[in-house]
Amino acid sequence: MVFEKLYRWITRQHGRSKKDLPDTDMLIRTDNTAPVKKFSPMTYQNPFIMYIQSVMEQILKKKNIPCQKLELIIIDAEADRDEDDNDIENVLYELAEQLNYLLLVTDRPEKFEDFMEMAYEENGLIVQHIPKAARKRARGNLVMDFERSTGIGTENMKSGTVYLPVYKRPWEIGENLDIIVPVGYNTLVVRDIFPSDFGIECLTDENFVKDRKSDRLDREFRKG
To answer: Which of 17, 83, 130, 143 could be stapled to 73 by a disulfide with Cβ–Cβ 3.0 to 4.6 Å?
Structure first.
């Protein structure tokens, strides 16, 4: 951002109009490396889903929500996004054992029939669901929003509800491998998730992607 502001200042001094400037929102150079692409919720892949249980434990602790009183709302992804569906499955199966309340906001409840059956048989959890048109009636204290095309939906939530946009804002790596998690329009720092020898490149390399896919294959195998 400093380099961008400096560039704009120098450009103004030479009398160039704003329309002549390059689109620095799309391509921002911070050094001599390749331009950094603008964040887009339509293409963003959240690399921290596989750590969701540890991340959630810290979020609940920081927000003073006892695990026993967690009321989780999952806003379903748009249709025909297989990778997003995989992320939702990862979250659901990772958290199922510790949930006493779960509400799915979805227009395709049949997509979750296997999970709902498993949750009831193995954990006694009765999963509720409502259509997206009725989302204003959803009540809980933590919302995970897997939609991409809508805005950040905090308007109709009761005070104190924790809202986690999974794709609408980037989850980033901070100092000392902290995870900067977006909570509504703010952020929350989650620490000590990764081992000391963890490399940031692990979040985007081919092995990381393979690990995520193998987790799902293992789950499908266990379900039979």
So the answer is: 143
The helix (run of H) or strand (run of E) holding residue 28 is strand 27-28
Question: Rounded to whole angstroms, what are the CA distances from 54 to 50, 87, 158?
Answer: 9, 15, 25
pLDDT at residue 68 above 60? yes
pLDDT digit string, tens, across residues 98-125: 999 999 999 999 999 999 999 999 999 9
Rounded-to-integer distance, Cα 218 and Cα 181, Å: 28
> Do 72 and 99 meet the contact criterion of CB atoms below 8 Å apart?
yes
pLDDT for position 187? 96
Token readout for 202 is: 């692990």
* Full-model pTM: 0.74
The continuous run of DSSP H or E covering 56 comes out as helix 52-62
Cite the DSSP H helix spans in the chain: 2-13, 52-62, 82-95, 113-123, 206-223
Nearest C-alpha neighbor of 98 from the set 64, 125, 76, 73:
125
